[in-house]
Amino acid sequence: MGWISRQFTTRTIVLMPIAIAINIVLGVTVQQVLKLPIYLDSIGTILVGVLAGPIAGALTGVLSNLIWQYAPGIGGGTIGPFAITAGVIGLLAGVWGQLGIYRSRPASRTVLIVAAVTAALIIGVIVYPILNNPAYTDPNIGGYPSWVFTAIVLIGIVAAIMVGGFILVSKDLAGFWVALAGVITGIVAAFVSAPISAYVFGGVTGSGVDVLVAALRQGGADVIHASLGQGLFSDPIDKTITSFVVFIILAGLSRRIIARFPNGERLVGTSVD
User: Is the pLDDT score of 62 beyond 60?
Assistant: First the structure.
């Protein structure tokens, strides 16, 4: 119990409602307004998990979805049951924080170039199935306007440039490991979400990813495999972008501030400026 209570310091408790608000505002904007095939509703969850620990991160994710589900004005929809997925994302973020994944790692220029190119290629690999999906290239299946396909291309390009560029400009190898952690988190999230989407909602959740499920169903996949396929299209790129946004936020914070959170020493090392 001591390990759990240490995660909920005053700073963690103050940060959690801010993180929940960030999750809901971005999630509503991206999923319900823009209907893009990503989510961006886990930035606050991952931030709390990395700074405070697995339980604090998991609780932030669960509360975000439950508050979103029942909040006046924006409540309802299908987000509530995915609190399980949000909890798993926060749990993994806490593990990455405790493992020191987000800690700065200076390296030689050659190593940094290799890491930047590799990270960009990883993003290209996880974005390619979205670009190659007929839901976005065949109007008879997806019916999406052309700007949505353009938006997906831009998301992939921006993500690759952001990750690779940050690694080179900051001269920090941590960016590579953060991107890799994001991909792993996304894959896990996809497998957790698929049964919820398939069996609770029949693969239709009212967000921008529904058309991917529809395309896979038209291709012959059953609802569970279509839901999993959609998740493996959307979740890895989404969690990579989200993880890197958190990394950039942490890079902009004072080492002294970070060190005062439960995972602080794992993020900045033992010495504090």
Answer: yes
Res. 147 pLDDT band, cuts 50 70 90? low
How does pLDDT run across 78-105, given as a tens digit for each residue?
Answer: 888 899 999 999 999 999 999 999 998 8
Distance CA 43, CA 69 (A): 18
Q: How many CB atoms lie within 10 A of CB 180?
A: 18
d(CA 138, CA 125): 21
Residue 102 is given by DSSP the state T
pLDDT digits (tens, 9 = 90+) for 248-262: 899 888 889 999 999
**Secondary structure letter of residue 139 according to DSSP:** T
Please name the helix (run of DSSP H) or strand (run of DSSP E) that holds residue 110, with its range, or none.
helix 109-131
**CB–CB of 235/186 below 8 Å?**
yes
Whether 212 contacts 205, CB under 8 Å = no
Quick one: tokens of 224?
């569970």
One-letter amino acid at 112 equals L
Q: How many secondary structure helices (H) and strands (E) does the chain include?
A: 14, 0
CA distance 66 to 37: 22
pTM: 0.86
For the cut 60, the answer to whether the pLDDT of residue 223 exceeds it is yes
The dihedral region occupied by 252, where left means phi > 0, alpha psi between -120 and 50, and beta the remainder, is alpha
3-state class (DSSP) for residue 106: strand
Residues 11-38 as b/e (b if ≥16 CB within 10 A, e otherwise) read: ebeebbeebbebbbbbbbebbeeeebbb
Residue 270: per-residue pLDDT: 47
d(CA 117, CA 161): 10
Instruction: State the amino acid at position 93 in one-letter form.
Output: A
> Residue 15: which residues within 8 A CB-CB, separation 6 or more?
47, 48, 51, 52
